[in-house]
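User: Please write out a complete single-protein record containing the residue sequence and its fold in token form, without commentary.

AI:
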Amino acid sequence: MLTYATKRCRFNPAVNYSLATSVSCSQKSSPSADSSENSSPLSLAMMPRLFSKSNYHPRTCTTVSSSSSSTLYSSSKRHHYASTYLLNSTSSTDHFEPHTQVPSSTCSDPFSSPGAPPKRPNTTYPTRTKSGYPFFCDSDINLRFFPSQTAASRFFSSGYLLNPTNLSFSPSGFPPKHSSSTTSNQTVNRYPFFGYSARFFGSQTTVNRIFSSGYLLGGTNLRNSIRIGSALLKVQSLAGGLRSFSSESDRESIDYDVVVVGAGPAGLSAAIRLKQMCQEKGVDLSVCVVEKGAEVGAHILSGNVFEPRALDELLPQWKQEEAPISVPVSSDKFWLLTKDHAFSLPCPFDNKGNYVISLSQLVRWMGIKAEELGVEIYPGFAASEILYDANDKVIGILTNDMGVAKDGSKRENFQRGVELKGRITLLAEGCRGSLSEKLVKKYHLREKVQAQHQTYALGIKEVWEIDESKHKPGSVLHTLGWPLDYKTYGGSFLYHMKDRQVSVGFVVALNYQNPFLNPYEEFQKFKHHPVIKPLLEGGTVLQYGARTLNEGGFQSIPYPVFPGGAIIGCSAGFLNVPKIKGTHTAMKSGMLAAEAAFGVLNEGSNMEAYWDNLKNSWIWEELYKARNYRPAFEHGLIPGLALSALEHYILKGRSPLTLKHGKPDHEATDVAKLHSPLQYSKPDGVVSFDVPTSLYRSNTNHEHDQPAHLRLRDPKIPGLVNLPDYAGPESRYCPARVYEYNPDEEGQLKLHINAQNCLHCKACDIKDPKQNIEWTVPEGGGGPGYSIM
């Protein structure tokens, strides 16, 4: 494990701690080794602002030894001072001397050795710390704690507080108070190093490699918490570390055997399956998963009634390993709604053996399993570009630059993106993946198999906590009809989860015609239906979010293989529309792609085996049988119900015909003069809410001083086309009020983009009538912070 030898010093105000100073890092086998270590130099240019005078406390500061051979303190002290934690003035003050602020009889043991990691509290501590290890005491006897000594020790060796910029997310230099309450998701998401189990990256398997190796010395992305900075890439002696480093160009690069973009169910399934095959065959492959969310699961949103078929194949012991899958479906209902009534319909969903889950929680668990197998997962990466070789073959991805201001200038924490190169690259970005769409167009992947265009829907979801008397764990309800008109395809879902939680959501197909339709307001309106409102009254909304989903099905699957890799999961579009499920098919596609990739890397086969495997799998069988369900609704609700019933109950997917989709979603929007504006009631604040209130519940956060990631190909089109012809539909289809038309100085309405509100749902990229809006990735770690979605 790579650590930093430190020794205490006194701050001399006369000394100019300039960036020309150098520090050294030393490598040792364990924190308690007694031998001296050789050290390799690190430039303080890699640690912006670290050694400024304002960042030191005159009594308890530390510096990193610059000698070529550093002698640490005795073995007993080594655990305390081997980390650079105490370099920060605030942390050194508040952790080094807290015993002087609190009566020793109340809080002495954890700080018997100044600067030492805390120990288990005894019975004299306040009861609220009884389940953890206190991190500090203040004058108010406010003990914050880790859940285990291991978690505390790893924090102390991580350098988390090494850079002062991180203090904006660590008040007074402290980590957040540990809590497993679902109502604390905002705190958890602000500090993704510490999930519900106080784990780094959702597990602790990469801490030694990343956090103790100088990862945070770059001092640039601590706002986002997760980012590979240049310091890590220049530290060559990582114990058991990454495969290789290169700095031949102006960007750093890391080489892997397989790079997976997206830590969702497809990407993690692929990574897990690859490592499983490595174990089975006695082969070592390096696998990296990059995720734009601040932590694994932060951008994951789904219904979700989970079919465990793929998980049974991938991790058959998931029940014994305590996967967050514990609420089996207990009842299944399907209703047609009118304004005041609900009519029961025959239920086409066979949910026997399925479970009501939070997909974001399942993905976190899968991330832990992946890391246990040796997969390296890096949340906070935003894959912004594809890397190609001279023959136009994909050789990896580039993460976007960090620290770029709105005007394009470099802020003081600027850092170039990192090249992550892979012999195989798997894209698992989810619905409407930005890189996946570029490759589909570049390599003409739809044309290669005569696939139709993809069609989409927007799903909006809330998680409520309701009265226990109303809660029925495992109860599943789907509806069609009101409040949508009979020409618009869509419906709702309401699933009873565990712990008095209810998942309620609304889905609207994005091929709707009326430009005045507002999916968010339709959802709020739905919750006032007389059979829905009583369930929610008296409850509390815990979280809100939105995401688009693929509905094209079998007809819209592109050729998923490109030179150098493949597209998996919802990026390719494997959602089974009549089942309203896509997680199991996404996982299976990732597993099949992993098997093909393993063959390419070790057996000399080619990636086209993935396509062959897909066509011979149960994914293909499922989607073929379901292929006519979605296009059956092209002409409205009633014809759609009739045709889908014929397909499901009579033909059972064996129809000799394959129906086609209608116009692409953006072309389906009518001009405003063909429709009358729709009127929506004001939210009551009880079951319906305005957008800002809901947005707050999504835990969405972006760095404000960065270029807008929502780009207009032609800035004139909103004023010349969208507003006069379509009445500004972007101001309504966006569920986060990103797009607003506001008057300028002359009273003319101009489009204003609130990019910091973005939920990453991708609706704008899909629905804009002229395809003028391009969704690109913002700085890594930005966006929503889902924990129970």
Residues 241 and 418 are 17 Å apart (CA to CA). Residues 631-659 form one domain. DSSP finds 21 helices and 32 strands in the chain.
